[in-house]
């Protein structure tokens, strides 16, 4: 895994990548920090960098991650763009965090794709690269080979998403616990909560989401969730979407599928048993929702990430 550090990177953006993919987690990742050439790279916020590899690191990497950097709308070294294009053509997974998306866009790797970046820079990205469909309201976007994330803290969400893709939800949750991070925030969650939402109400909704996660096997309804939050159904539904990017029942369904993923990994229960325990009713329902949300059937997911029977 090559992390391409361009001049003026965010310390948090660089740190998140090295922390999530650290060898101590036992997942066989190795992050190679690199730049145009080995040596010093000017930083920002009081931190400079010294990398041990140049662009040749991209030639053998299975994943390339570009953290945000200073002056993303300015010119980018043509050698960097050529190296990014070559890596992508080879089939390398290409990832950007925060305004690192500008480097992928300048290389043409986001053309015809949906992508995100920090919400403050999203209009600039859309203006400078009209072939890119810019979504400024999400934490990250997974387009298969190419993935982008929003503001710098969203790098953590995207990196944990990559762990889920590569090793399953149990591994991702374990690393999130070590880092004292939210184990799962979907790509569709809003980058920020609109200011029109009073802060105490947001706290109430967080408590309601926690309550719902403890009662997924029950027939949860918007009525029940709104009653728990102490607001009307209309207010609950509208502000829930503003807060998470999903309607309440879309969010509940994804939470149920996520719980099913973990049970497929760590238990020997059959699909019908898991479906009942996560609240989707039948195995047929679980298979349908699993396929639609994750793009794979439960049986294939278990073959890939199973073998961890409790």
UniProtKB/TrEMBL annotation:
Keywords: DNA-binding, Transcription, Transcription regulation. It comes from the Bacteria. One of its GO terms (molecular function) is DNA-binding transcription factor activity. The keyword Transcription applies. Signal peptide: none annotated. The keyword DNA-binding applies. It holds the Pfam family DJ-1_PfpI. InterPro entries: Class_I_gatase-like, DJ-1/PfpI, Homeodomain-like_sf, HTH_AraC, HTH_AraC-typ_CS, INH-QAR. CDD domains: GATase1_AraC_1 (cd03137). This is AraC family transcriptional regulator. It comes from Actinoplanes cyaneus.
